[in-house]
Every structure is written in C-alpha cells, then in structure tokens.
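Let's do one together. I've listed all components of the complex below, 488 residues spread over two lines.
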Amino acid sequence: MNIPDDLKYTKDHEWARDEGNRVRVGITDYAQSELGDIVFVEFVATGTEVARGDSVGTVESVKAVSDIYAPLSGTIAEINDALEDSPELVNQDPYGKAWMVMIEMEDPAELDALMDAQTYDAYVAQEAK
Amino acid sequence: MKTPLFSEHTKLGARIVDFHGWEMPVWYSGIKAEHMATRQHCGIFDVSHMGEIYVRGTNSAALLNHVLTINVSPMQQGRVRYTFLLNESGGIIDDLTVYCIKPEEEYLLCVNASNAEPDFAWIDSHNQIQADIENASDKLALLALQGPDSAQILMQCLDFELDQMKYFNFRLVSTQAFGKLLISKTGYTGAGGVEIFLDQTFVNLLWQKFIAAGATPCGLGARDTLRLEMGYPLHGNDITESTTPLEANLSFAVDLKKEAFIGKKILEKQQQDGTARQLIGLVLLDKGVPRQGCPCLKNDQEVGFITSGSISPVLGKGIALCYLDRSVAQNDEIAIKVRDKQLKARVTRPPFVKGNVDK
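Okay, and this is what the predicted structure of the assembly comes out as:
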C-alpha cells in the first residue's frame, strides 16, 4: 500500500497536497484498490464553492459509485478533465496523473487538521481488519 | 457457504464478496483485465456455487415436460438446452440448462446457485408421477473454461478435442486424474469454451492445471460484464418471478406447441395479445454508467427501467438491459436517469459485441 509521506489524508480516503494557497486532491492507493477498476469519473464545475465534506465529484467502478469529498473548504480552481477520458489512470497512478481537483484554500488550518501519512497508515490498517 | 476452491481463490489474492450467501471471488487482478483475457485468450471461472439437480427414471422426461418450457422428449444423448421453470402466472422461477444424459432415463439440470433449493422444492412438489430427483449441488463442482484459447488448453490438459463438438452439446469423459467429467460446449460469456462438471474431490487439481496451462482466473465481476455484453439475462435482475420469457424476448426457449406445462396458458395469451413491455438493450451515447433501477424516459415520460448495466470493456461505453414499453422501438433515442442527470441512450437489440460461438 503506497502512502506518500508528503501528503495529508482524510477518513474517506482522499489525499491532499499542499501547493501554496492551493491544495491538490485525489483518492488514495488504498481507495482505488478497494474500488477496483474505475470506469467513470466526474467532478463539479470549476468555480464551485465547497465546504469541507461536500461532494466534489464521483468515481464509479464496475460495482459501485463513490463520492469524492472536499478535504477542506474553498473554491474549485481546476478539475482534471483527462480522467473523464481515461478513468483507468485512477488505478494506475492515484497520486500523480489521477489527481482530481485543485481547491483554492480558505483556511490553511483545515489542512493541518488532516491525518499525516503515519496516522492514515494506522487508520487503513484498522479499517482493513 | 464456500466452494471447494475457496482456499485457491484466497491464495490468488481474490477479492471475496458475498453472493447470495456464497463467499465468491469478484476479481483477482481486475474485472477489465479478466474480461479481456476471456474475450481474447482464456479465462477460468469457479462456478461451483451453481446448483445441479438430477432427474431420473422412466417418468423423468414426463416430469420435465410438465415443469420446463421446452420439450425434452426429442433431446438426444449429449444435447444441452436452455429453458425455464415457470410459476402458474408464467413468471420465471429460474432459468437453467438441461443435459440429456440418457433419453427418457436421466437428465441433469444446472440451475442458479441461490435458486437450487427452491427449484428442487418446486419440482418435487409437482412430482406426482414419482420420478427420481436428486439435488447433487453439494457433490458436483463446476468450472467454466471460456475464450478462444480454450480448445488448445483442453487439448493440453485433458487431451480433449473440442473442435469436433457442436455448441450446446456435451460429452462424458472418464479420466485417471480427475474422475468423470461432463464437458459441455456452453457458457455465459459468449467467448466460446466449455463448462465442466466434476466431483468436488478433483476440482482443485483441475483448476490448478488449467491455470498452469495459461488460463486466467476470473471472478464474478468479469462473468457479469461478459454476459451483459452478450445480452444474456441474469435471473434476479433481468428475469424474475414477475417477468415472463415472452416479455424477456426469450421465446426461443419456450415450446408453445408442447401439450401442457406450468405457465403455458399465460404465455399463450401473451403470444396472442402481445406484451406491454420487452427486455431490450441500450447503448449509452453520453458518458456514464447505467445502473440497475435507473428509470428510462422518452419525451420526459417514464417508459421503463434498467435491470442490468455496466461499462462494456470491449466498447468502452455504457450498456444496459432494460424493460421498455412496446411504444419504444429499436434505434429510438431515449434518456436514462442516473442519479440527478439524464443521459442519452440508443435502444439496441443485444448482443452488444460479436461473440465467438457457432450457432
């Protein structure tokens, strides 16, 4: 299970990367492996204001539909259109090419409140039991 | 419940799900990879959860002719046919294959896993003529070896010549290593290949041998997408006790010329009057995943609902089976409602992809 040290994590298995006043968001390696083959991805529109915990899109595997939740509040600055044509990237490169949305942060304290890699690792181990 | 291959599945790292009380592999490497392996090469599926019911004795054919929609009397030894058990209202209790082991003497029914016990009870309750019926589901294992490379793998593993056999025929083969095998040129994938019934004792060995020869282990996920691409119905989704074979466009497996069978009266009436709805296919024109239960709309009027849906790994598009009012015609463009969105879809008669079975 790949859990990069430089990212922050949510209990819903999103990751968040601090890129100054913006945060790049995707789903974790654990999430993609639990979902299986991703066949469809869609996001809310650029410019949408979201509160922490709001849905910013959905990922669909053959068997299930899952929401992607905003790890923190802000405005959707960019979405990764490439995933709409190549949803399989979510399985292949969840922390790289398959980033999902970029959020213009409102309050950096919300980022600090997310889990670090070590905490998330323990959380996944617990959940996988 | 577990099949005899459960430990093989966990050894291979399968994702296990509950399927009507059975702990079954949904995938090993991934549904799409397994799907494509079966279409292009060869997949091996553990379908030992399926039920097997033997009907034997001098009244065996008479009992089957009473409870099944086809006439088994003309079936020759080695023939397989697809058919239904109907209730009195013509609703489908189960869809199944019947194997003629010896005409008028011995038949094998292969039924859906979760229906095996109710099917057996239903047949038993109509067995006034006292044929000998046996639920052999706990004794027999079933492997499906599917895909264009199946013939070569069968030759390599069992020295068995598949090409000489016709579709929907079977052979009984005695082997040293695996006991008696019933090798049937049938399947639920449209990819060609066989289904093999055997004693549970030998199934682990045969499973391992097929994998060593190059067959890709495939789970129920790929089995579902493969059958959906062919438009094969799934009992519980596309056909149920409240749908009839005529509504489901499956009249090829119904013989209305047969003197009498359970449900015949209703089917005759439907044949005469037509049915208000039919089971048909959809190919999505928009991106998205059609799901079971999604409403179908034409000019904003609800005209039906989806019974099975997925993304076709071969087409890369959403495909679905649905019941639509007869007012909707083939090639019509309709909309389906997926959560809060409407997606465009074209009404199509399956199969959605070209199969690899000689009819």
